[in-house]
């Protein structure tokens, strides 16, 4: 019998003392809602991500182990490059007095599964009565090490409560995993070393990446170590050991540790399978590994990003949840890799990188850890060959960045076909990879934003200027002459419910911005670094393109506010049909609209999927008046379904700018609960990376009021009424500022050895090196 209760499935208040607002706890086991917790409780360290399936297997589970940058393409014209699901090393099958431990059998007397954000450890605490009436206390613990990126550690304790028990374990490495049925690995060598270490080798079928997985077990009874008899089994892509039954007396505790590791030929320090084995053989036990893991999280994460919210417990938990996942999803160890739209928490979007990174996630690192931000942007520079290839394939010049990116040289990897059309029953064509082109300007914007915050001239000279120039070359070749002006037709803007539109406002404005920045930096380098300009000119034909930029940028059509101050989202949006969206906005189901309409029908209605004009008003905010922002909010928000997870965060920030604290906070609450909330079907395919980054932006850029305008730092806090204080760090031009905001005052500590100038609440101030400025 399952433990059934009326209270919410997730609890946020279990933590007390030093663990207050650090714990997220699943309070009941539901075999129909495994996906949500598998994703939001996922463990990761940037090198790999582990979907948090249980040790024992269930029919509705989706097990996943993803290693950064190990893409593979299954053979076939309809397949695209994706991050392969590596071997599962979590599985452990327990037989207790002849009965298999399964929570769908017997009776659950107590159940809690807890993600401890501070320790980055997942635990399950269970009191289970078997079908035969035997009772057991079983505790599972695991983590993916931030100290040793290759290691997964598990610990299980079993305590019989009614009678003595014989415990039998079957455990190993299962390489039979697939990506929704697609097998990405060739058969490799299976082996057992010294009767202790199991090994499974595999190679990806197309990209020829070698994977090697190891697992070993250790046993203790009442803290006395022992080694049970065992038998090794090998099957196709699978190696398992059966450990013979061991008797555990009533109220005694057996402890089982399983330490696993994965290494690939993509690792920068890869040498050979033998070297990987040598490294793994030196890995310590659970407690030793956990001590180092905790220290890494404390020094690299929680000390680096000490964000404090006072007055609202859930909000403090939510920002820690965001930082936890931002850390786990980001391959900070390797600039050849980027952030997937689902991180490493599921197969959603195939591990591909989108504009999510540059617009929603990168600002966190740009202002909080510039070293990682630089690496993420270096990925885009390294992937210029793929962007150039896409431009050539579409008869354009310069760098046309893919909507979805994987390998550096791949170019576009967006699938061509999606879900079935509700009306025709045929697959829906995905046009984003063909005509959602604003990502090229988004990347240029992120480069510029990084440079303004950091002053990193070395990055600009090696990578940044080239990215801005190469993207501007694309835009000048993309613009279409229409009479005495230039236009951009046949695109998809951020609002993906509008396809093949002309002059999408966001796309046109961002393209114009990109061209203007290229002109500015071309002229700057003429004066300051003509040798670098000459080198880049030879590669990108900048002398000719500079003239093209000037002429076309000046004549590029930019949709202007109409008599009601509304900026047309595109040429035809304002003339489309208006329907009552109230039922769909109220629905808990994302995309509920498509139960009644297909995309062609929605394309002819004034319905917006996510922030479009609104995100333009956020990114280029100093180009629009407060009156224009308010008018566009009033017009577009009622027509926006927020069917994309990234939408509410943007709207929350704009609501703060418009002075509506209550609405800003309401939008923030909804954004922070997309993954963390009680909807047990919201995250089955994985967490929402853009939303996770958006949560941080709402806290720091929205409520904290941090902005960079025209290369200058501004701070204009406006805390929600529920918050009594907010503290957070930011970097500005190499200086680390610690900002503490209350409802009545602002304190800024400059921890660097150089003075910092910023504008606080409309007044320019200078904060001297190693001093603290406080408002009255």
From TrEMBL:
Domain Glycoside hydrolase family 65 C-terminal: 707-765
Protein keywords: Glycosyltransferase, Transferase
Active site: 496 (proton donor)
Molecular-function annotations in GO: carbohydrate binding; glycosyltransferase activity; hydrolase activity, hydrolyzing O-glycosyl compounds
Binding site for substrate: 355-356, 609-610
Cited InterPro entries: 6-hairpin_glycosidase_sf, 6hp_glycosidase-like_sf, Gal_mutarotase_sf_dom, GH65_N, Glyco_hydro_65_C, Glyco_hydro_65_M, Glyco_hydro_65_N, Malt_Pase/Glycosyl_Hdrlase
Domain Glycoside hydrolase family 65 N-terminal: start-end pairs: 25-266
Family: Belongs to the glycosyl hydrolase 65 family.
Record's protein name: Trehalase
Lineage: Bacteria, Bacillati, Bacillota, Bacilli, Bacillales
């Amino acid at each position: 019998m399952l433990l059934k209760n009326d209270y919410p499935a997730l609890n946020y208040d279990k933590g007390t003392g030093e663990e207050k607002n650090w714990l997220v706890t699943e309070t009941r086991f539901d075999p129909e809602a495994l996906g949500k917790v598998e994703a939001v409780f996922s463990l990761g360290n940037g090198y790999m991500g582990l979907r948090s399936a249980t040790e024992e297997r269930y029919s509705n589970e989706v097990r996943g182990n993803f290693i950064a940058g190990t893409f593979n393409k299954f053979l076939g014209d309809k397949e695209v490059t994706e991050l392969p699901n590596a071997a599962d090393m979590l599985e452990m099958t327990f037989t207790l007095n002849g009965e298999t431990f399964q929570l769908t059998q017997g009776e659950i007397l107590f159940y809690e599964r807890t993600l401890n954000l501070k320790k980055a450890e997942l635990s399950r605490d269970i009191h289970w009565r078997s079908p035969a009436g035997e009772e057991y206390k079983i505790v599972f613990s695991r983590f993916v090490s931030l100290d040793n990126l290759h290691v997964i550690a598990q610990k299980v304790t079993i305590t019989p409560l009614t009678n003595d028990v014989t415990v039998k374990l079957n455990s190993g490495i299962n390489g039979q995993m697939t990506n929704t049925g697609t097998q990405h690995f060739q058969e490799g060598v299976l082996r057992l070393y010294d009767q202790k270490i199991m090994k499974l080798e595999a190679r990806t079928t197309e990209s020829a990446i070698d994977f090697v997985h190891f697992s070993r077990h250790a046993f203790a009874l009442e803290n006395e170590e022992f080694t049970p008899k065992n038998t090794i089994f090998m099957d196709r892509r699978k190696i398992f050991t059966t450990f013979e039954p061991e008797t555990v007396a009533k109220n005694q505790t057996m402890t089982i540790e399983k330490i696993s590791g994965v290494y690939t030929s993509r690792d920068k320090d890869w040498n050979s399978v033998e070297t990987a084995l040598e490294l793994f053989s030196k890995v310590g036990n659970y407690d030793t590994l956990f001590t180092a893991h905790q220290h890494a999280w404390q020094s690299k994460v929680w000390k680096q990003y000490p964000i404090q919210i006072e007055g609202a417990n859930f909000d403090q938990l939510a920002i820690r949840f965001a930082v936890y996942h931002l850390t786990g999803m980001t391959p900070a160890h390797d600039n050849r890799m980027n952030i997937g739209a689902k991180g490493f928490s599921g197969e959603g979007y195939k591990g591909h990188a989108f504009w999510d990174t540059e617009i929603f996630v990168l600002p966190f690192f740009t202002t909080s850890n510039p070293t990682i931000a630089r690496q993420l942007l270096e990925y885009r520079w390294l992937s210029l060959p793929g962007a150039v290839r896409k431009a050539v394939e579409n008869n354009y010049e310069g760098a046309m960045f893919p909507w979805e990116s994987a390998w550096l040289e791949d170019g576009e990897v967006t699938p061509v076909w999606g879900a079935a059309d509700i009306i025709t029953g045929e697959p829906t064509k995905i046009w984003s990879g063909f005509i959602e082109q604003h990502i090229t300007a988004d990347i240029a914007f992120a480069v510029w934003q990084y440079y303004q915050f950091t002053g990193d001239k070395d990055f600009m000279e090696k990578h940044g200027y080239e990215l801005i120039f190469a993207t501007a070359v694309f835009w000048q070749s993309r613009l279409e002459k229409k009479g005495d002006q230039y236009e951009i037709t046949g695109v998809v803007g951020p609002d993906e419910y509008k396809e093949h539109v002309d002059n999408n406002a966001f796309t046109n404005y961002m393209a114009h911005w990109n061209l203007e920045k290229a002109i500015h930096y071309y002229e700057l380098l003429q004066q300051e670094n003509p040798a670098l300009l000459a080198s880049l000119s030879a590669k990108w034909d900048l002398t000719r393109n500079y003239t093209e930029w000037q002429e076309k940028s000046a004549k590029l059509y930019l949709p202007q506010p109409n008599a009601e101050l509304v900026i047309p989202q595109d040429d035809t949006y304002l003339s489309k049909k208006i329907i009552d969206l109230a039922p769909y906005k109220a629905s808990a189901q994302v995309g509920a609209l498509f139960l009644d309409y297909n995309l062609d029908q929605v394309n002819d209605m004034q319905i917006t999927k996510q922030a479009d004009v609104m995100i333009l008003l956020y990114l280029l905010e100093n180009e629009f008046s407060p009156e224009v922002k308010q008018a566009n909010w009033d017009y577009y928000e009622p027509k926006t379904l927020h069917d994309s997870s990234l939408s509410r965060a943007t709207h929350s920030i704009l609501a703060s700018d418009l002075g509506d604290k209550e609405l800003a906070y309401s939008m923030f609450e909804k954004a922070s609960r997309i993954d963390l909330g009680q909807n047990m079907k919201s995250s089955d395919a994985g967490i929402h990376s853009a939303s996770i980054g958006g949560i941080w932006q709402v806290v720091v850029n929205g409520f904290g009021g941090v902005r960079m305008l025209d290369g200058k730092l501004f701070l204009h806090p406006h805390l929600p009424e529920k918050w009594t204080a907010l503290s957070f760090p930011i970097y500005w031009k190499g200086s680390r500022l610690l900002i503490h905001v209350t409802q009545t005052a602002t304190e800024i500590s400059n921890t660097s050895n150089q003075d910092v100038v910023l504008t606080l609440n409309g007044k320019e101030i200078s904060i001297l090196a190693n001093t603290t400025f406080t408002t009255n």
